[in-house]
Amino acid sequence: MNIGILFLATIVAFWLSAVAGGGASLILIPILNVMLPPTMVPVSLTIGTFTSNASRIAVFRKNINWKIFAWFVPFSIPAVLLGAWIIKYANPTYLEFLISFFLIANITQLFKKKKTDEETIVKATKNLPLKLSLIGFVAGFISGLTGAVGLLFNRFYLKFGLKKEEIIATRAANEIFLHLIKIITYVSMGLFSANAISLGITVAVASLVSSITIKYILPYISEHVFRNIGYTAMVVSGFVLLSNSVKGIVQQRKFSIETELVDGRPVKSMLWKESKFAIELNRKKGFAIEQDMSSTELPTRLQSKFSDYSQQFDKVVLEKITRLGEGTIYEFSCYIGNQLTKMEESK
Question: Are residues 270 and 242 in the same domain?
Answer without folding.
Answer: no
